[in-house]
Amino acid sequence: MGTISYTGRFDPTPTDDYNTMREMARASEEVKPTNTTAAVLTASEVHHLDSQRKKFMMDLTAHIRNGGSVGDVSDGYHTFNELYHHRAMLFAALCHLNPEIAWKSKQHDDPENNPMYDGMFICGIQTPTGQATYHYDIQPYWELFHCQELETAPAYDGHSPAEAIQRLYDAFCPKSADEGVHDETDK
C-alpha cells in the first residue's frame, strides 16, 4: 500500500517520487500572502487548486477503501503516523523532565458520562496558565510516560489545541515580550 501525499499547501498528488514531491512543495510556496496584501490568484489558478484538492480527496478516499490508513498521508516529508509518534515522544520527554506537574490516566475525569476512547489514555501537564493534554494509544505509549498515574484525569479546562501548545511554550521556553506561538489555525 503506497502513501498518499499532500505536498505543500496547494498541490496534493499521490506519488512515490520524493524529488517530485519536494519540487511541487517548493512551487506551492511561491504564492503566499504577506502581512499587508493577500495573494491574488487568477480564476484558472483557483480552478486548478480546487481540482487538485478534489483529486487529493478522491485519491485519499480510494486509498482508505483499499485498506490504507489516513496515517499514511504525507506532506511529502512525514506521514501523519510519523508526526503523531514524534509528538508523543516529545511530550513523553517533557513529562519525564517535569514529573511533579505531569500525569497520565486511563480514565477521563467522569468515566461514567465521558468514557475514555478505546485503547487510549490521556496525559497532561499542569502549566501555570492551565492544562496541556493529549490522548495517546496505550500501546506502545503508556509505559513511555514516566509521570504520576491518576485513577481519573483532572477535569478538562476547555483548552483548545492552540492554547495547549501556547501554554507549553509559555511554561518552558524563555521568550521576549513579543514572542509567542502562532498556529496556522489562529489566522
What does this structure look like?
By secondary structure, the chain is an alpha+beta fold. Helices cover 36% and strands 16% of the residues. The protein has 5 helices and 6 strands, in the order ββαααβββαβα. It has helices at residues 18-28, 43-65, 80-97, 138-141, 161-172; strands at residues 5-7, 11-13, 102-105, 120-127, 130-137, 148-150. The strands form 2 sheets. Strands 5-4-3-6 form a 4-stranded mixed beta sheet. A two-stranded antiparallel sheet has the order 1-2.
What's the layout of helices and strands?
Blueprint: E1 5-7, E2 11-13, H1 18-28, H2 43-65, H3 80-97, E3 102-105, E4 120-127, E5 130-137, H4 138-141, E6 148-150, H5 161-172
Parallel strand pairs: 3-6
Antiparallel strand pairs: 1-2, 3-4, 4-5
- Summarize model confidence as the mean pLDDT: 77
Strand order of the largest sheet: 5-4-3-6
Low-confidence parts, pLDDT < 50 over ≥5 residues? 6-39
Provide the structure class: alpha+beta
Q: Sheet with the most strands?
A: 4 strands, mixed
Task: Supply the key terms.
187 residues, alpha+beta, four-stranded mixed sheet, two-stranded antiparallel sheet, 16% strand, globular
Produce a short descriptive summary.
The chain has 187 residues and is of the alpha+beta class.
